[in-house]
Design a protein that fits this description.
This protein is of the alpha/beta class and 456 residues long. Helix content is 39%, strand content 23%. Bound molecules: magnesium ion.
């Protein structure tokens, strides 16, 4: 049985051999080959245990539909996206579950322009799969599969775009994910001194969670401190997100890094539009507007950031999970590119990372996740809207661009269903921690009551 909706905000995502089986992967391959008669298709995967199994099935479906397939082996998602345009492919397909635990995998589709499929395109693929309206090629027209190595083209492109003067000492932590070899290589080619940790590919992610955060990067922070390195960088499982550790061995808050880099880009361009999502801290608004720029907010998910960036001709975009988009290069969030561009920014500003982010205003921001079944999570958020409005009658603004967002004079609250996991996510930001905690406590109660109500 297929789930009610196959595609979420990051393509297809699910537990392997339960939600996401090879049988489904064959159908996805056939549907992509059928949709728009795609002839040249690139396929890559992250280091997950199930990657090869799903790749073989997906490629089988593509070949049966008459597409020629170029298999790129293990690569970060942004490298696959970049190569899709660079190698003039019709479509690029990435087998990854990004930052999710190892039992998950997923399929994300990019078009010839390196942008991920939008909702409309995904719905068309989904319809072909649901109706099984596949077009099989005649036996003489079955596609061919080729193994190709595309890494070098990406490395050359980065090195052409970025030149560094200083020999930075960087500690790189790929977390056993898709950036395991290409990230250390890029920094070395740029002339950095590189210390790599967790740089062996391993789909069980034994060293740390594939989601880089303050807890999972404790070992990286320690190495940066002990070696007195200039910077620590870590990527998620598929390398579209980046997290930083400063020269003092401290994890850099995602919102502060995003706001400081956005303000830098706006400063360099003498103004411009920056796109972020509804979850980002209000510090980005303050820093960007102080430099003469403007912030546009979208739903959570890089698809929406990309669409909005194209629409507003934005000069930079990003989400506070470390997914940054640099439109001069391409429209896929790119962790490796982001980290090299940050080094360039530090050189230009003649600052160490702690100074670079120090100007970001520090507000209290608390995030909490509450487990909630996928089938119920959207209904729970809807119910929570009314509950929150009456619990916080002092709200100034109410928005449902994504989930429920209420803002007050001193901060805001956001309740939304996760795009990829069975969770309801709560975010509260305020000027004092005490006040923020109080608001969070009331919001959690409201959401829990809504879950109980939906379950009845
Ligand atoms: Mg990712």
């Amino acid at each position: 049985m297929l789930k009610a909706k196959l595609f979420g905000s990051s393509g297809i995502r699910g537990i392997v051999n339960a939600d996401l089986t090879p049988t489904l992967a064959v159908k996805v391959g056939l549907a992509i080959a059928t949709f728009g008669k795609k002839r040249k298709v690139l396929v890559a995967r992250d280091t997950r245990v199930s990657g090869l199994m799903l790749e073989k099935a997906l490629v089988s479906g593509l070949l049966a539909g008459g597409a020629n397939v170029y298999c790129l082996d293990v690569l970060p998602t942004p490298v696959l996206a970049y190569l899709t345009k660079r190698l003039n492919a019709d479509v690029g397909i990435m087998i990854t579950a990004s930052h999710n635990p190892p039992q998950y995998n997923g399929i994300k589709i990019f078009d010839a322009n390196s942008t991920s499929y939008n909702e409309e395109e995904q719905d068309k693929i989904e319809k072909i799969i649901k109706n099984e309206s596949f077009t099989f090629a005649g036996w003489q027209k079955i596609g061919n599969a080729f193994a190709v190595d595309g890494k070098q083209k990406y490395i050359e492109a980065i090195c052409k775009a970025i030149k560094l003067r200083k020999r930075w000492h960087i500690v790189v932590d790929p977390g056993c994910g898709a950036t395991h070899s290409i990230a250390p290589t890029v920094f070395r080619v740029l002339g950095c001194k590189v210390t790599a940790i967790n740089a062996n590919p391993d789909g069980f992610f034994p060293a740390r969670s594939p989601e880089p955060d303050v807890e999972s990067l404790v070992p990286l922070a320690k190495v940066v401190r002990e070696l007195k390195a200039d910077l620590g960088v870590a990527y998620d499982g598929d390398g579209d997100r980046v997290a930083f550790v400063d020269e003092k061995g401290r994890f850099v808050d995602f919102d502060h890094a995003l706001a400081a880099y956005a303000a830098y880009v706006v400063g360099q361009n003498g103004g411009g539009t920056v796109v972020t999502n509804v979850e980002a801290s209000m510090c980005i608004d303050e820093m960007v507007s102080a430099n003469g720029g403007k912030v546009v907010r979208t739903k959570v998910g890089d698809i929406y950031i990309t669409e909005s960036m194209m629409m507003h001709k934005a000069i930079f975009g990003g989400e506070p999970c470390g997914a940054w988009i640099h439109p001069k290069f391409h429209y896929c969030p790119d962790g490796i590119l982001s980290s090299t561009l940050l080094l360039k920014a530090l050189e230009k500003e003649e600052k160490c990372l702690s100074d670079f982010v120090a100007e970001a205003p520090k507000y209290a921001i608390i995030r909490e996740n509450i487990a909630c079944e996928n089938e119920a999570k959207h209904k729970v958020v809807e119910k929570a809207a009314e509950r929150l409005k009456s619990a916080f009658p002092q709200y100034k603004d109410f928005s449902m661009v994504d989930g429920v967002r209420l803002s007050f004079s001193e901060g805001w609250i956001l309740v939304r269903a996760s795009g990829t996991e069975p969770l309801v996510r709560l975010t509260v930001e305020g000027k004092s921690l005490k006040h923020t905690k109080e608001i969070m406590k009331m919001a959690v109660e409201g959401v829990k009551k809504s879950i109980a109500e939906v379950k009845k």
